[in-house]
Amino acid sequence: MTKSRQGIFYAIVGAIFWGASGTIAQGLFSRGKLSPLWLVGIRLFFAGLLLLIWYQLTTGKTSNSFSIWQKGNDAKTLILFSYLGMLPSQLTYFLAINYGNAPTATVLQFLGPIFIIIYLALAQRTWPQRINIISILLAVCGTFLLVTNGHFNSLSLSPLALLWGIGAGLSQASYTLLPGRLLTKYDPRLVVGWAMLLGSLPFIPYIAFYPLPQLNGYLLGNILFIIIFGTMLAYLFYLTSLRFIQPSVTSMLSSFEPLTATVLSFIFLQTVLGKLQIIGAGAILATLFLQLIPAKEKKLKK
C-alpha cells in the first residue's frame, strides 16, 4: 500500500468513527441525558489519558512521554494546537449538534476545507490544484444533497446552531493545519494524547459541579464508544493521515462522516434515502477515486 493510500485509509476510517459518534451524541442530547460541555470534557480527558498510557506501555520509558515538553518551540505548538485546534473543534461541533442536529453541523463544518485551501493558496502564493477544487466541490455538493435531499428549507437553523456550525468549520481548519511539524517528529499518540488532556482542563470545574448522570449499560456503552472510537481513534487516525497526504485532502475525505451518519440512520432508524441523497452519497464517494488518480498516474510514469 502506497503512503497516499495509507493516508486515505486513515482519513476515511477516522471520519466513519466521527460520523457514528456524532449520531450517538445527538441521541443523547435530544433525550436530555447529557450536557454537551460535560461530554466534551469527559471524552477529551479520558481519550487523551488512554492515548498517553498506550504510548507509555509500547515505548516503556516515562521520559519519552514528556519528550515533547523538553523543546520550547514544540511545547508552544502543542499548547496552541490544544486550545486553538483540539478544544474548539470538539466544543463547537457538539454545540452545533446540540442546538441543531448532526447533519447540519456537518454541512457547516465543511467550510473547513474551503478555509484550508484558501490559506494554503495564499501562503504558497499559488492556485489550488484543479483536482482539489473538483474534489472539494463534489464533497460540499454531495454533503448538501445527502443531508437535505436538495431542499434549502430543510436547513432551517437557530442562530446559535449557525454560529457554532461556522465555528466548527473554522476550528476544523485550524485543527488540521496546526500540528504540522509535530507529527513529523513525534508519535501521533503522543501529540493527540497531550492535546486532548490539555484541552480537557478548562472543563474540569464544570464536570466537578455538574450532576453526574445516572449511568446504565446503554448510556455507559454510548459514552465509551464516543471516548474510544469517536474521539481517541478518530482523531488519531485523522492526524496520522496528515503524515501521508495533504491537509486539504484529509479534510475532503472527512465527508465520509455524514455518509456514515446517514447509513446508520437508515439501518437503525429506518430512514429512507431519497434519490438526491443517493446522488450526494455517490459524489462523496467519488472524492476517494479522484484522490487516487494522482498516485496512480505517478506509479505509471515510473
Which characteristics define this entry?
79% helix; globular; mainly alpha; disordered C terminus; 302 residues
Describe this entry's structure for a reader.
The chain has 302 residues and is mainly α. The protein has one domain (3-301). It has 15 helices and no strands. Helix 5 (102-109) runs antiparallel to helix 14. It is globular. 46% of the residues are buried. Mean pLDDT is 81; it is low at 295-302. Belongs to the EamA transporter family. It is found in: Endomembrane system. InterPro entries: AA-Vitamin_Transporters, EamA_dom, EmrE-like. The chain crosses the membrane at residues 7-29, 35-57, 78-96, 102-122, 134-152, 158-178, 190-212, 218-239, 251-270, 276-293. It is a multi-pass membrane protein.
Short characterization:
The chain is an all-alpha fold.
